[in-house]
Amino acid sequence: MSTANDKVKPTDAPPDTHKVSNFLRQIIESDLTQGTYAQRKWAGSPGDASHHAKGTTDPAKIRTRFPPEPNGYLHVGHAKSICLNFGLARDYGGVCHMRFDDTNPEKEDTEYVNSILDAVKWLGFNWDAHGTTHLYQASDYFDFMYRAAEFLIQAGLAYVDEQSADDMRANRGDFNTPGKDSPFRSRSREENLNRFREMRDGKLGDGAAVLRAKIDMASPNINLRDPAIYRIRRATHHNTGDTWCIYPMYTFAHPIEDALEQITHSICTLEFEDQRPFYDWLLTRLSESHTQADGTPLPALLASPNPKQYEFARLNLTYVITSKRKLAQLVTEHKVSGWDDPRMPTIVGLRRRGYTPESLQLFAERIGVTKSDSWIDYSTLEGCLRDDLDPKAARAMAVLDPLALTISNWDELMGAGTLDPCHAPVHPHHPELGQRHFQFGKSLWIERSDYEDNPPKGFFRLFPGNKVRLKYGYVIECTGANKDANGKVTEVLAQLIPDTKSGTPGSDSVKVKGVMTWVSQADAVSAEVRLYDRLFTQAHPDAGGKDFLASFNADSLKVMTAFVEPSLAHSAADAKFQFERQGYFVADRTDHTANKLVFNRCTGLKDTWSK
Ligand code: ATP
Ligand code: MG
After folding, report:
1. CA 413/CA 416 separation, integer angstroms
2. What is the DSSP letter of 554?
């Protein structure tokens, strides 16, 4: 059976362009044809214009990046972004940078860093290419960002604003009203530079001033009405400690990070579309030369051509929450057992649920990328898992809700205590994987729902007088059932029909409508089976600002004490199986041991989600 990673192409592999096209692929293909980035240089590490000028022509045809904030565990939405960014780089002879966007000092935690790296690697990607490890953290660029801020001040393109937060908000105007210039907007470049240095040196209190780009207070795009680019915030940063008491705003930091890393295609979600004009404004200003107030030249800081930002629709999945903050709430309020609870849409949760890297890559391919928001049906995700597991998961029989079945004529036909060996293929389409072995006997376990006293119409399994085949075993005829004082069935009784053993000549001479799975009381192994349901009862749990906890499905985990066939006794944690008639199951990565078998249902055999 193939393992998780052996199908995934390395980043250095030759271009692979026969994938379903999308607008991003078209943009990249057109850039490659036109040689938009062909002259770009790369000096082996991120840096400014003079650094890259010393480099050679970039061996990477394109550069993309995956830039998570290390403030939580990654989820299925991030998986889409990872597959997209790393996948495009792989397919077009490029490189994808793994970058921690850790410019916000308050929210980050080193705890999340390793989980994020693990998730990306597990999905089948890596950031090593051309002998370089492209693993970066944005906070390493703080010095440069500061320099870029002074550069803008010296070019007359930024000013220190000391209006109160309320005044600043009021003077920004709104969609219908142009903004008003701040009284601080006309400060001299020299005054701005001194004041900004005082901000840096801790002479001003938190929130007392911000550095703003000087663009246009009347711009129809509110994001261009002199956006703040640096703020004062006394907070200890996980990487830079207390070195800084001023921090760049995300909208200022992100384009600079891209430019220092020579990113060509900076792919983000649609909510950043309105920020694109500022992204372009900033990088254009920083990559051209200016003149200072006294006439001294200011040579360009950043290399050209600039990275370009492209937006795609984020993944919205029905019955699923994809917000790190809300997922964190489920964990801290103990609604789930942790970030890796198999019901969680986190990558660690999906993995524990039995999702494979291939199934998530397939999912990313199938949903594609578009420029308009929509909802993807949860069944699409499950369909990808089924399609991935079906050809590779070993088959097994399991009885999840066991009911005893006694073959009343066994002793007479076969001899008391006799067990009859049966076998079945590990996989119906892969004979090379061999056979599973188990015993037929007098006492078996069947699924409780496979017996009815009074069968409803269309019920072909066990009821008095009916014949069924026990798969890989014999045809039996039900003769009745024993019950306890409450009328609950405790044992089903049946007679074995001789000469009907599967695979023996003439075994199909007795025609039956039903085929049932079973295990033998003699060799079945006890196992805990965990059945999961959707975590929310509403398709759009947090749409329109709804309280998502209101539709939390408290009944989303059912634990069964099951019996499984003996071939599963030595199964390894994380191994995936198809339990015949039941669905796909995975041996729980955390709790499954040789002494206690624990299986999680990954998904059913059929789609039960879509209407
Ligand atoms: P969250 O709101 O869950 O915290 P985020 O967007 O703030 O998500 P980041 O760590 O900033 O999380 O995201 C890293 C990358 O993953 C970004 O480029 C972002 O666009 C992408 N991403 C996050 N959520 C989704 C999603 N639902 N679909 C597609 N891409 C996503
Ligand atoms: Mg974010």
Report:
1. 9
2. T
**Across residues 367-383, what is the average pLDDT?**
95
CA–centroid distance, 348 to ligand 1, in Å, is: 16
Say whether pLDDT at 311 is over 60. Answer: yes
Q: How far apart are CA 282 and CA 115, in angstroms?
A: 33
Model pLDDT, residue 108 = 64
What structural domains does the chain harbor? 401-517 (2.40.240.10)
CB 517 less than 6 A from any atom of ligand 1? no
Give the amino acid at 314: R
Q: What is the pLDDT of residue 13?
A: 45
609 to 161, 189, 203, 377, 523: CA distances (angstroms): 54, 62, 60, 8, 35
Residue with CA nearest ligand 1 atom 22: 78
Whether ligand 1 lies within 6 angstroms of the CB of 268 is answered as yes
| Neighbour tally for 55: CB within 10 Å | 16
Residues designated catalytic: 69, 314, 324
Question: What CA–CA distance (Å, rounded) separates 38 from 61?
Answer: 7
Read off the pLDDT of each residue in 327-340 and give the average, rounded to a whole number: 96
Q: What's this model's pTM, rounded to 2 decimal places?
A: 0.93
**Per-residue b/e over 476-488, b at no fewer than 16 CB within 10 Å?**
bbbeebeeeeeee
Q: Is the CB of 133 under 6 A from ligand 1?
A: no
Ligand showing the shortest atom-to-Cα distance for residue 74: 1
Beta strands in 13-74 (DSSP E): 41-42, 56-57, 63-66
b/e sequence 148-169, b meaning 16+ C-beta within 10 Å: bbbbbbbbebbbbbbbeeeebe
Q: What is the pLDDT of residue 2?
A: 38
Q: Which residues contact 404 (CB under 8 A, 6 or more apart)?
A: 443, 444, 445, 490, 491, 492, 521
Ligand 1 atom 9: the closest Cα is on which residue?
68
Phi–psi pair at 122, nearest 5 degrees: -60, -35
The C-alpha angle with vertex 330 and arms to 327 and 333, in degrees rounded to 5, equals: 145
